[in-house]
Amino acid sequence: PTLVMNRPNTVTAQDKSQVINLEAGESSQVSFADWEKFSFAPIRESTVSRAMTRRYFADMDKYTESDVVIVGAGSAGLSAAYVLAKNRPDLKIAIIEASVSPGGGCWLGGQLFSAMVLRKPAQLFLDEIEVAYEDEGDYVVVKHAALFMSTLMSKVLQFPNIKLFNATAVEDLITRRDESGELRIAGVVTNWTLVALNHDTQSCMDPNTINCNVVLSTTGHDGPFGAFSAKRMQSLRPKGTDNSFELGGMRGLDMNKAEDAIVKGTREVTPGLVIAGMELAEVDGSNRMGPTFGAMALSGVKAAESVLNVFDL
Ligand code: AHZ
């Protein structure tokens, strides 16, 4: 049998005699049986540039007024994005991820091990996104964390109302004072991550902005890139002032306490800003849970609910 690629997307095995073997571009089939006759459809280099840049700038134009901006494409952020986009196809959702490669700390189960543990009832989220697992009673095991992350990411990226801007960092928050004088988060200030990392070495690299109704921050626990919005809120409302925003600081590891606390605590922490995932441990001073991922998925689910509550819908 010869492998035949029927355009688009379906791959079937067929007997070589059934394959009409024409030049690519002229046929609805490409046979891998005869590489001598193989060639790609022609293209001009500028066409490739335009194909990318036209779409990117159209997306920038479209999402500069978003309904929701999710900061950080780790397990909590992407779980929230999935639930939000699935339930509310009318909302425009921008995901801003500082790294070139989205996924955060969810490519391995822990240390350098592959298998990923999720305590029940987080298996319900795996059922929803159709990731297989072994049932071990109180917990389930996915054979590779990358299977969870790649499946989740692939589903998120297919929603028409989501745009992921990766290699882009949120470097500040847009703030407003409402009539009562309370600070409200009204969007994010962005820059290419490579630019954000070079503000000390170059001048005049002003940022860009995205306005939105609600920011969902899921930037992980404190580190070079972590806990971004929590730390910015602390500096916007410093200790000793009225209405100060103080950070509890993430505590040591306690799986049992940590996972419940993160899911229960996921909320709008200040008007216009919902915080979920491990960034919340820095706000509330809750424990870390280490290599068990159920709380990240379900904190994402609860964050989606909190975001919709901000809209009062
Ligand atoms: O690159 C970051 C990562 O992909 C991204 N990020 C951070 N700051 C950003 C900024 N602008 C844009 N200013 C930013 N993106 O946020 C993502 C965070 O992903 P994560 O996997 O670190 O966070 P999470 O809360 O989804 O999952 C954390 C999982 C746990 S628990 C744990 C422990 O207890 O030890 N450790 C990890 C990694």
Write the layout of secondary structure elements.
Blueprint: E1 2-6, E2 10-14, E3 29-31, H1 45-63, E4 68-71, H2 75-87, E5 93-97, E6 116-119, H3 123-129, E7 134-135, E8 139-142, H4 145-158, E9 162-166, E10 168-177, E11 183-192, H5 193-196, E12 208-211, E13 214-217, H6 228-236, E14 251-253, H7 255-265, E15 267-270, E16 273-275, H8 279-284, E17 287-288, H9 294-311
Helix pairs in contact: 2-4, 2-9, 7-9
The structure holds ligand AHZ.
Low-confidence segments: 8-27
Strand content: 15-25%
Small molecules held by this entry: ligand AHZ
Number of strand elements: 17
Mean pLDDT: 91
Counting DSSP H or I runs of 4 or more residues, the number of helices is: 9
* Major sheet: arrangement of strands: 9-5-4-13-16-15
Q: Determine Rg (CA atoms, Å).
A: 23 Å
Structural class: alpha/beta
Write down the secondary-structure element order: EEEHEHEEHEEHEEEHEEHEHEEHEH
**Overall form:** globular
Note the main sheet. Answer: 6 strands, mixed
The helix content, as a percent range, equals 25-40%
Oligomer: single chain
Measured distance between first and last alpha carbons = 55 Å
GO molecular function, one term: cysteine-dependent adenosine diphosphate thiazole synthase activity
Protein name: Thiamine thiazole synthase
Subunit structure: Homooctamer.
Family: Belongs to the THI4 family.
